[in-house]
From TrEMBL:
Origin species: Sphingobium agri
Domain of life: Bacteria
Stored Pfam families: Na_H_antiport_1 (PF06965)
Matches recorded under Gene3D superfamilies: Na+/H+ antiporter like domain
Keywords tagged on the record: Cell membrane, Membrane, Transmembrane, Transmembrane helix
PANTHER family: NA(+)_H(+) ANTIPORTER NHAA, SODIUM ION/PROTON ANTIPORTER NHAA-RELATED
Localization terms from the record: Cell inner membrane
Protein name: Putative Na(+)/H(+) antiporter NhaA homolog
Length: 177
């Protein structure tokens, strides 16, 4: 004799068929949860990762209007790159240290300087506001070079920051490379 559990068929005479009252309660609770959300909310939850991590960055990149060319590398490109990749993390760490040293704040539970440093490297990622400010600050002759510096710095900050976060969490768990 077989019992149908969703799409899985299991024999009832098996040592553990999975057809327990606890499982039936969990299936019923799952059904109640899925029915409590409107179809629009389910669609929004399903699309959120795609929009946040693929569509919006592609939209921002397409609207950046940057032609990737090595001839656009100018001193302003290097200055923006250095400021975003190194300056922002240094600023975050310096002011965090000052606030902690003055006693205005304390490190949260489970937070240490390694985590704070790894997170500080991620601060150079934000390129949409940097594009906006670059459009206001630079003449059209330097705008492409500035945007290229912003994009390169965002990419470098993302890579370095994610590697740093991975390294810190890996070592916190006590694993060695």
């Amino acid at each position: 004799m077989r019992a149908i559990l969703g799409n899985v068929m299991e024999p009832r005479d098996h040592e553990w068929s999975g057809d327990t009252s606890d499982r039936r309660d969990l299936v019923e609770a799952g059904r109640a949860i899925s029915e409590s959300l409107s179809p629009l909310e389910r669609l929004e939850m399903m699309l959120h990762p795609w929009v946040g991590f693929a569509i919006m960055p592609l939209f921002a990149l397409a609207n950046a209007g940057v032609a990737f060319s090595t001839s656009d590398i100018q001193p302003v490109t290097v200055a923006i790159f250095v400021a975003l990749v190194f300056g922002k993390p240094i600023g975050v760490l310096l002011f965090s240290w000052l606030v902690l040293r003055s006693g205005l704040a304390t490190l949260g539970a489970g937070l240490n300087w390694s985590f704070l440093t790894a997170g500080a490297f991620l601060t150079g990622i934000g390129f949409t506001m940097s594009f906006f400010i670059a459009n206001l600050a630079y003449p059209s002759t330097l705008l492409a070079a500035a945007k290229l510096g912003i994009l390169l710095a965002s990419l470098a900050s993302a890579v370095v920051g994610l590697l740093a976060v991975y390294w810190v969490t890996w070592h916190k768990r006590g694993n060695a490379w």
